[in-house]
Amino acid sequence: MQANFDYEPVRDAAGCQLSVTVLADRDHIRAEMREDALAAGFRVRECCSLEEYAQGPLAALGDLVMVDCAVASADALALLSRLDMRGGKAGAQLVVSTTMAALDSVFGCFSLSAPQILVDPGRAERIIAIGRVLARVPNLRLREMGEEDRLMLLRLTEQVGRIAERLEKLSPGQREGGGAFRFESPAQAWRAQGEDQRSAREEEQRPRLPEAAVLRRIIKARQARMRHFDADLFADPAWDILLDLAAARAERQQVSVTSLCIAAGVPATTALRWIGQMVDADLLVRVSDPHDRRRAYIALSENTADALARYFSEIGVTDLAVV
User: Fold this and answer.
1) Which residues pair with 67 in a beta bridge?
2) Which residue has the higher pLDDT, 204 or 25?
3) CATH number of the domain where residue 219 is located
4) How many independent structural domains does the chain possess?
5) For strand 255-256 and strand 292-300, is the pairing parallel, antiparallel, or unpaired?
6) Which of 31, 71, 98, 311 has the most CB within a 10 Å radius?
7) What CA–CA distance (Å, rounded) separates 77 from 85?
8) Is 202 helix (H, G, I), strand (E, B) or coil?
9) 13 found inside a domain
10) Is residue 70 part of a domain?
């Protein structure tokens, strides 16, 4: 007898089954997304291509919106921007899959709805994304799971825990009453006579980030290890992200999401989770392109840049040293 791994229907506080909107141009992907959402306990509200949805009458979004956008056409990006606005206002949860080629354009469409963005995902990654949505639903009941399912959930939980733990260690302080990983802001003290002059001198003496050539040398040395050892031994996406952004800051260059995912040295979907966590932790900031509102870059926050400068000063990185 085959075990049934389907979830019970997901219901809101009023007892109504939650719904899903499935949008994908690729027929086989759309069919998989629909099937997986049904198995997870959602009721399908809409299931069609992006073009059909854009040209149809304005309909209410599902509680979960699953989108597959493989090609960043103007019409597709316009629809994604609409979904971001509507999803942000309605509180719908979005899971958006795309390709590496379209990532920058797709990422730039979302600023309100905080979607899960998956890059070239397999079916298993989409299922995990649905599971992350289900984890936020109260009073959710699961049918009995097999041992393989239990192990997969355990590994996923451990991975998320490691991300949170490592991010917390990166942050030097936490504001009272604020969320985890946040930097502690110094209090504004009363300034005595001459305080302004002392502050100016202290500002001049503050450590600065090393030159871009130094940082690029450090990054190159880190990457060289992968030619001699298993890359997984040295996977440290948070640090690689910080180094790449520090070098770009020294070069006065903007960093796209696609470039940062490559620099992280892990699969793009994993890198996006790290970037999202680090933005939430105020380690990084999202910077909109003033010439194209649909495009966004990632940069170090000022506090993070200061922390990195102090770190490099403390370990004595003043020339082409290797870390």
Assistant:
1) 23, 96
2) 25
3) 1.10.10.10
4) 2
5) antiparallel
6) 98
7) 12
8) helix
9) no
10) yes
Bridge partners for 296 per DSSP: 288
Write the pLDDT tens digit of every residue in 254-299: 999 999 999 999 999 999 999 999 999 999 999 988 877 778 999 9
* Start-to-end C-alpha separation, the chain: 57
Is the Cβ–Cβ distance between 298 and 145 less than 8 Å?
no
The Cα 34–Cα 66 span in angstroms is 9
Q: Helix 257-264 crosses helix 237-251 at what angle (to 10 degrees)?
A: 130
Per DSSP bridges, beta strands 284-289 and 292-300 are antiparallel
Structure tokens at 117: 């963005």
This prediction has a pTM of 0.74
* Contacts of residue 122, Cβ cutoff 8 Å, sequence gap at least 6: none
Query: Exposed, middle or buried: residue 254 (CB in 10 Å: 0-12, 13-18, 19+)?
Result: middle
Measuring CA to CA, which residue among 103, 74, 93, 29 is closest to residue 271?
A: 103
**Amino acid in position 121:** P
